[in-house]
Amino acid sequence: METTDAFAGLECVDCEATYDPADATHRCPDCGGILDPSYEYDAIDLDRDTLESRPFDSMWRYEELLPFPRETAVTMDEGATPLVECPALADELGVERVLLKDEGRNPTGTFKDRGQTVAVTAAKHHGATDVALASAGNAGQAAAAYAGRAGLESHVYLPSRSSFTNKAMVNVHGGDMNVVGGRIGDAGAAYEEALAEHDDWYPVQTFVTPYRHEGKKTMLYELIEQLEWTVPDAICYPTGGGVGLVGLYKAATEFRDLGLIDDLPGLYAAQASGCAPIVEAYEDGRDEHDPVENPDTICGGLEIPDPGASPWVLEAIRETDGGAVATDDPDILEAAVQVAQHEGLEMVPSSAAAASGAWELADRGEFDGDETVVILNTGSGNKEADVVRSHLMGQGI
Ligand SMILES: Cc1ncc(COP(=O)(O)O)c(C=O)c1O
Ligand SMILES: [Zn+2]
């Protein structure tokens, strides 16, 4: 198995056991904990000039900090997304700068591509023939796309509420699509059942494969470089399972430990009030979430009632002096409309929760006026244009 020079192996976040990535492929064989790729940071010789001299063409330009060499990757040049200045939003929030990291420009229209390029590359290295996952929708679409490119079969389990685009594109990519009645938990149960019957299926499920949060790290590397090595005061991240937030946290500590930045950005988890287990745990000072009994939000990607990695997500928020904020669905849709009308940028509802959360933080007086705030637009607005459009109905438009 070909890996990058500094990639040292996989470390269990619970029991700290370490494993050879050729042997351990998913969760910790000893305790079932999440495995996290680790590196010999002393062996990584990366400075600002070296990175700046590379074309801004793909997230794989940070290959020293990824497990697999770029030339072996199943890649469609994902990442390298723009960080767009939003002056009208900055005025509205009363801060110095607001920038939107536009992950909608990825091959399948969301940041999920960053996770799947690494996870499907690992699947290929491990000799898999089939990959499988349950997903709210976008990750399933991304997995089907990358599996197709790698010549692998994909088995995708989506809840019936997934968007039309997600379902259509899983089919278009040639995936084996399974639409399951109910919500994400029901899709997860159907996937587990199918997996138990197919021991040759390779999971590319969140925090089951060690490689999805690893790919998401690159969002932070890029935005720091795009800000010319300054660290934003706040990054608002639309949080479901928290995969991306954990990735941002890991990346920030890596860049700090490599001497590329001095401070960590404040990481803010934005959720929808109808399913906000991370925000509730944060506000109550708990280290772990309580599952939400009756999740109900229009933001499909955020409707994750039982996010297993919540201790890690809460650590990321607290260690970076960030925060957590929940807003209501109508405010989230209104934020998507306002951003579209004043900045031209198109946000999917799940992602508009980050814009709506930033507004709410400003209303609460979280900002002084001189901050740089980054909003993660995790997905393109045209994935769920009908849902955003529906918000105008009540206004007679
Ligand atoms: C558009 C979008 N934003 C955010 C999320 C939540 O991501 P995470 O699991 O990293 O919290 C999802 C997950 O499905 C999503 O599709
Ligand atoms: Zn373990």
Describe this entry's structure for a reader.
- With 397 residues, the chain is α/β, with parallel strands linked by helices.
- Helix content is 36%, strand content 16%.
- The longest helix is centred in the middle third of the chain and has 15 residues, at 243-257.
- The N and C termini lie far apart (56 Å).
- The strands form 3 sheets. It has a 6-stranded mixed beta sheet, sandwiched between helices. A 4-stranded parallel beta sheet has the order 8-7-6-9, with helices on both faces. A 3-stranded antiparallel beta sheet has the order 2-1-3, with no helix packed on it.
- The protein binds pyridoxal-5'-phosphate and zinc ion (ZN).
- Residues 110, 136, 138-139, 238-244, 301-302, 348, 350-351, 378-379 line the site of pyridoxal-5'-phosphate.
Content of β-strand: 15-25%
What is the CATH architecture descriptor of the largest domain?
Answer: 3-Layer(aba) Sandwich
**Heteromolecules bound:** pyridoxal-5'-phosphate, zinc ion
Q: Spell out the helices and strands N to C.
A: EEEHEHEHEHEHEHEHHEHEHHEHHEH
How big is the Rg? 20 Å
> Major sheet: size, sense and barrel closure?
6 strands, mixed
Tell me the number of structural domains: 2
Order of strands, main sheet, comes to: 4-5-13-10-11-12
H/I helix tally? 14
Overall body shape: globular
Pairing-aware structural class of the strands and helices? Answer: alpha/beta
* CATH fold naming of the largest domain: Rossmann fold
pLDDT averaged residue by residue: 97
Tally of DSSP β-strands: 13
Low-pLDDT runs = none
| Helical fraction | 25-40%
Highest-level CATH class of the largest domain: Alpha Beta
Gap from first CA to last CA: 56 Å
